[in-house]
Specification:
The complex is a heterodimer of chains A (450) and B (293).
Chain A: H1 2-28, H2 30-40, E1 56-61, H3 66-76, H4 80-83, E2 88-93, H5 98-107, E3 114-116, H6 121-129, H7 136-142, H8 151-161, E4 174-181, H9 182-188, H10 196-208, E5 214-215, H11 222-236, H12 240-245, H13 254-268, H14 281-289, E6 295-299, H15 303-306, E7 319-322, E8 336-340, E9 345-347, H16 354-375, H17 392-403, E10 406-408, H18 417-431, H19 437-449
Chain B: H1 2-6, H2 8-36, E1 39-42, E2 46-49, H3 53-60, H4 62-97, H5 101-113, H6 116-126, H7 135-142, H8 154-181, H9 186-194, H10 199-210, H11 212-227, H12 231-236, H13 248-258, H14 262-292
Helix pairs in contact in B: 2-14, 3-14, 4-5, 4-8, 4-11, 5-8, 8-11, 11-14, 13-14
The chains are: A alpha/beta (450), B mainly alpha (293).
């Protein structure tokens, strides 16, 4: 009999563990709940805070080495005064579960002074509403450095978080579009497309010439869903996706499904190559930079890779850029550039002090120059010195930003966390031809509705 | 010893510390998480009482139902294969390899101690289709087949997960069942042989009935382990393609910590707890008679 009882007890304990595993975590963070609502009352203002801090903590993603590199240069360089008595202490964790980590940290009131912002804008909005994030418009005005952030970048961030004030600093400012291998285009006799139909024709010609038309990280999903979003914005106008977020339109409406169908058709034709759903970001980048495909939809943050001679086997002069093509008869314009502030950085209110304020002001004033000079990174900060050895591609990106008449956000920018995840986990299915446009849009719409 | 257990005070004194720890780390969080199932929100936005909304949502949520269905399918297939291969290996150790089985046992047990992530990385390479062609695809194309994207097709990825997990765990069940089989008295086997039972008949009539208790333990271990599968799937497919290989555990994790819906996540967790309980009771009930015979 003892034989039969023992497993039951073990199992009950095991069962209990199942439920408890994740929920113990939830229970832990309940303390943070009250503190979050406490701080909510002063809505991110900087009153009643300490005046000094012993250290300036920064938490970033291991994948991003530009921000921490720039901060370290600033600490010993332009920001030495701010760092005196408040040295930089940095830490990094993997970026793939970034938003989850931030939620747990925020729930426990354990955010670093400065950290990369949440990838999902709706989560940032939660942070802002809960008063966890410093209102930078106030801080920059207090130190008289409000001119240090480019108006276009500030506008993009405010549009993204749907706020009137600035809550994050644009450590990157990117435009997105197609980068193409000029040699492969010439080999197949293809011209730069300006409409979607021309793009599809170009892909067909490249494919017939034995060249893989598109390189995309289907495993990450977003490089594919960006195409869907941009098609919709070109076809239905720049407010089309906001309408979905506001509930005025549904992704399952036929005119929206058309965008997903257009991309699914490329996938079905095999234009993204074999097993497109399994390719990750680094693999895709490597594939493009070793001549494995002709067109690569990506943000201008990839300039760092393009400018790296070791990675870039096809040569930086061989890479051209063209804007996401127009959709014939569509309401959107090719001059509206898909733009984003990469992953900007935010500052937490809970350990804010005057020392941290000094750091913020110094970063705002100097980050742009240092990042551009040391990493070739185009940021959303005002630039006072242009480096002499700047590559043509970097200049091209700066020109594109300067000449853009307007900017649009990406497909998932206004979606919920759930909608974003579902969209990106299913994006690969579009590229590999396993999902139809309608199936994809239905999944994302359902997720958005929660 | 008897007198100690009859002394109520002594019993209480000995049980209290353990019971206290158990209450703090087990019972309170369980009750706490159950209260979350009636709330929505998270630690950042605060909580709000929503009654049975989370439960109603669960049964109308296609993704949750898909995850539930996947979990059940995975648990049934895995439990069967784990215990069957384990039992087969244990019989192999006992009847064929006999005293020479220790090296084979060690080799087959080896994957159990490997980190899941390392195993998953290895299997993703083995079944890779692009950018490099993995060994499995190399064989398929060599035999004249088409390049197969194992992680892009829901049907294939399910079986890749199964193959990996069976490979990873069969050694454990083999050792567990082997321990049960060596306990079978040699005299019983001997007398059965004298009575003319051999081979399959011996296994069917003598070995199987006598090893039922340990088989039952294995089944309960297995079904509960497989219902809670998480790490191997996250590391191998991350629930993909789409959500085709997303079990309830992963869905619970995502709803709670990625979507910030602690209440709904707790509801999914509670459903999983119920499922484990039901599975255990079912296995236990259906085999109890045989065990106590």
């Amino acid at each position: 009999m003892s034989m039969t009882l023992a497993p039951r007890r073990t199992t009950l304990a095991a069962i209990a563990l199942t439920g408890v595993g994740a929920l113990a975590l939830a229970a832990c963070s309940s303390g943070g709940d009250t503190s979050a609502s406490d701080t909510a009352s002063d809505s991110g203002s900087t009153d009643e805070t300490a005046t000094t801090s012993d250290e300036f903590t920064y938490l970033g993603q291991t994948q991003n080495t530009t921000i921490i590199g720039t901060l370290e240069s600033l600490e010993t360089g332009a920001c030495a005064a701010a760092a005196d008595g408040t040295p930089l202490v940095s830490d990094a964790i993997d970026g793939t579960t970034w938003d989850q980590q931030l939620q747990v940290l925020a729930g426990n009131d354990a955010l670093s002074n400065m950290s990369m912002a949440a990838g999902t804008p709706s989560l940032m909005q939660d942070f802002i509403d809960a008063g966890l994030v410093v209102d930078l418009s106030d801080v920059l005005a207090e130190y008289g450095v409000e001119d240090s952030v480019l108006p276009a970048a500030a506008a993009t961030l405010e549009q993204l978080y749907q706020t009137d004030d600035l809550y994050a600093l644009p450590t990157e400012y990117n435009i997105e579009g197609f980068w193409y291998n000029e040699e492969l285009f010439a080999e197949a006799g293809v011209e730069v497309p300006t409409t979607w139909d021309e793009l599809v024709d170009a892909a067909a010609t490249l494919d017939a010439a034995g060249i893989q038309p598109f390189v995309a990280a289907g495993g990450d999903g977003w490089p594919v869903t960006r195409l869907v979003g941009n098609y919709i914005l070109r076809d239905l106008g720049s407010d089309a996706l906001q309408k979905v977020a506001d509930g005025e339109a549904s992704l399952t409406d036929p005119e929206y499904v058309a965008g997903a169908d257009a991309v699914a058709a490329l996938g079905e034709a095999g234009y993204f190559g074999a097993a497109a759903g399994s390719i990750d970001y680094d693999t895709a980048m490597n594939q493009f930079l070793t001549g494995g495909g002709a067109m690569f939809y990506m943000g201008s943050w990839a300039l760092a890779n393009f400018n790296d001679e070791e990675q870039n086997q096809i040569g930086v002069d061989n890479i051209g850029y063209f804007a996401f093509p127009e959709v014939s008869g569509g309401a959107g314009s090719i001059d509206e550039v898909p733009a984003n502030a990469g992953i900007p950085v935010m500052f937490t209110t809970s350990s804010y002090s005057d020392d941290i304020g000094e750091w913020i002001a110094c970063i705002a004033q100097n980050y742009g120059d240092v990042a551009l000079a040391e990493s070739g990174q185009v940021t959303g900060f005002t630039i006072t010195e242009t480096p002499a050895d700047q590559s043509d591609l970097t200049t091209l990106v700066q020109d594109e930003i300067a000449n853009a008449t307007g900017s649009v956000l990406w497909f998932e920018a206004a979606f919920t966390s759930e909608g974003t995840t579902v969209s990106q986990t299913n994006g690969g299915g579009l590229a590999s031809g396993n999902l139809t446009g309608e199936e994809f849009m239905q999944l994302v719409q359902d997720a958005n509705e929660g | 010893m008897d007198s100690v257990f009859r002394d109520r005070k002594a019993t209480l004194l000995m049980l209290t510390p353990a019971l206290l720890v158990y209450t703090i780390v087990m019972l309170i969080p369980i009750v706490w998480s159950v209260t979350y199932t009636f709330q929505s929100g998270n630690a950042i936005t605060g909580f709000e009482f929503v009654g049975f909304d989370n439960w109603i949502k669960f049964f109308g949520d296609d993704t949750a139902i898909d995850a539930l269905w996947f979990t059940l399918r995975y648990a049934v297939v895995m439990t069967f294969l784990q215990v069957a291969t384990g039992y087969g290996l244990a019989l192999l150790y006992i009847f064929f390899l006999r005293n020479k089985s220790s090296l084979v046992r060690a080799i087959i047990f080896f994957p159990v101690i490997l980190p899941t992530v390392a195993v998953a990385l290895m299997f993703s390479r083995i079944f890779e289709a692009a950018p490099t062609v993995g060994p499995v695809n190399a064989v398929i194309t060599w035999l004249g087949g088409d390049l197969t994207d194992f992680f892009g097709d829901p049907g294939y990825s399910f079986w890749v997960v199964i193959i990996m997990d069976v490979w990873r765990s069969m050694g454990f069940y083999a050792v567990l069942l082997y321990a049960g089989l060596v306990e079978i008295p040699q005299e019983v086997m001997e007398s059965a042989r004298i009575d003319g039972a051999s081979g399959w008949k011996l296994v069917q009539k003598i070995v199987f009935p006598l090893s039922l208790p340990i088989l039952l333990s294995s089944l309960i271990f297995s079904i509960n382990g497989t219902l809670k599968v998480f790490d191997s799937i996250v590391a191998l497919t991350n629930g993909g393609p789409g959500s085709a290989t997303t079990p309830l555990t992963l869905y619970m994790f995502r709803t709670s910590f990625a979507y910030g819906q602690y209440g709904y996540g707790s509801t999914v967790a509670f459903m999983l707890t119920l499922l484990c309980l039901l599975a255990t009771i079912f296995v236990f009930r259906s085999m109890r008679k045989d065990v106590t015979k």
